[in-house]
Design goal:
By secondary structure, this protein is an alpha+beta fold. Helix content is 30%, strand content 28%. It has a domain of 196 residues: FAD/NAD(P)-binding domain. The longest helix is centred in the last third of the chain and has 24 residues.
């Protein structure tokens, strides 16, 4: 007599990896994608399910090169993000001037849905071999005596243990891994972004520009999103009196009404969200690498949104990190030192550029916000 069919047993999930990437934003996903290309086994531990709003909607034209290098250009193009033809600014004087992308060899930039963009990158990594733990909370991240790492996470109510030879800190400003190694974060300024969304409506072609407008207490950013809404953000310092008042929508609206070009851009639209406040300050961790770990993206360095380089920087640092980790595994002793040197140079050059652009705005000499940025780089 034949035996009844035994229930099929699922193959056990892999728990040992070459690299564990803690954080599934652009920096972490880029690192995983590049490491996949180099033949390494990778796991991404991401605390969200990409359901929350993520800020950082404008990509420069030259990001195309990075997306091609990561082999996700076709995926990105298929998402049909809104084209960004340039940056329109009222900075240094009241009149608008354009810095368009018409002469850029890569063409236009893009206004993107960040949550959809981030999820696309992680899905691409997953489909090319990366194991992804979504909705996962890191309970502990400890280095063993042999230099390998043991990471305990909770995902879907289940505690799991992961092991990796190397850990990448891609946890953004929190720098979770670096801080657990005793590394402090150096804060350069107190910039915050007070963000709101305005409803979709018909608008002329000027909508495809990113708009930057300076004001007495800070500056405004606005951009069209793929769903035809407009995102606006007021940038100011968290400790200023105006920042304390911005918790109330009518105070934020009062600041908006004092602008010229930003107010005109949204005047036919209605406020479509609650106000949200995000950290937007310039910062860095004291050191970018350690024993079998390194930091990428915002976990390593955060840029002022004025640079419009946040996502670009994250992807570039992910590619750079993957090359350094690969060299480290190959026995190149200087690989992590070289990675650190490249980030040190990048941060130094960024501070000079940041200072140059802020010092171009001189209309409000009595403003504490602008006084703080009139000095040489810290």
């Amino acid at each position: 007599m034949s035996k009844p069919n035994a229930p099929k047993r699922q193959a056990p999930q892999k728990s040992c990896f070459d690299v564990a990437v803690v954080g599934g934003g652009p920096g972490g996903a880029a690192t995983a994608l590049a490491l996949n290309q180099l033949g390494h086994s990778v796991v991404i531990v991401e605390r969200s399910n990409y359901e929350k709003i993520r800020i950082g909607e404008t990509l420069p034209p030259n990001i195309q090169r990075l997306l091609v290098n990561l082999d996700v250009w076709d995926r990105f193009s298929a998402q049909n993000h809104a084209r960004a033809v340039g940056i329109r600014s009222a900075w240094g004087h009241a009149e608008l001037y354009d810095n368009d992308f018409i002469h850029n060899p890569y063409g236009s930039g893009w206004h993107i849905d960040r949550a959809r963009f981030d999820e696309m990158l992680v899905l691409a990594a997953e489909q090319t071999g990366t194991h992804v733990c979504r909705g996962a909370q890191v309970v502990s991240c400890l280095q063993c005596l042999d230099g390998d790492w043991q990471i305990d996470i909770v995902s879907d109510g289940t505690r799991k243990n992961l092991k990796a030879k190397f850990v990448v800190d891609a946890t953004g400003r929190a720098a979770l891994v670096a801080r657990r190694q005793g590394v402090k974060r150096m804060i350069i300024d107190r910039l915050i972004a007070v963000v709101a969304f305005f409803s979709a409506t018909q608008e002329r072609s000027a909508r495809h520009f990113t708009l930057i407008e300076a004001s007495a207490g800070g500056w405004w950013y606005s951009a069209l999103l793929p769903d035809s809404r407009i995102v606006t953000a007021y940038m100011t310092d968290a400790d200023l009196d105006v920042a304390n008042q911005l918790r109330f929508p009518w105070r934020w609206q009062d600041q908006l009404n004092r602008t010229t070009h930003t107010r005109a851009r949204v005047q036919r639209r209605s406020l479509d969200s609650e106000l949200r406040i995000f950290a937007a300050n310039t910062s860095r961790v004291e050191r970018f690498t350690g024993s079998n770990w390194l930091a990428v993206g915002d976990a390593a360095i955060t840029f002022d949104p004025l640079s419009s380089q946040g996502v670009y920087k994250a992807l570039r640092s992910g590619l750079r990190a993957a090359r350094s980790i690969n060299a480290h595994f190959s026995g190149v002793n200087s690989s992590l030192l070289d990675y650190t040197a490249s980030l040190e140079d990048e941060f130094k050059n960024y501070l000079k550029t940041r200072s140059y652009y802020y010092q171009r705005e001189v209309r409000w000499p009595a403003s504490v916000f602008w006084q703080r940025r009139a000095s040489v780089p810290p």
